[in-house]
Amino acid sequence: MNTKNDQQSALELSVALPKKYKVFLLNDDYTSMDFVIDILMNVFHKNYQQAEIIMLAIHKEGQGLCGVYSHEIAETKVMQVQKLSREQGFPLKAIMEEE
Known about the structure:
single chain; CATH 3.30.1390.10
């Protein structure tokens, strides 16, 4: 019996990876497509082509995946979207879901 390997295996099992969260933007009838692209580029650091693809998914499917982050980062991104949308007078909403 090798106790060192047993202890190492137990330690590896007890160290769990932090949960990840998906951040989605939700479609609405008022937010401009240009503003959604700006949000995707500035908040989620997408290039124009990526932002356009996600924006079209939001428009066609009702929501679009913007990224997967740790809880704190996902929460911050949702709050940034809310703040910027409110400042510009748009009802754009972001949500986060556990992966």
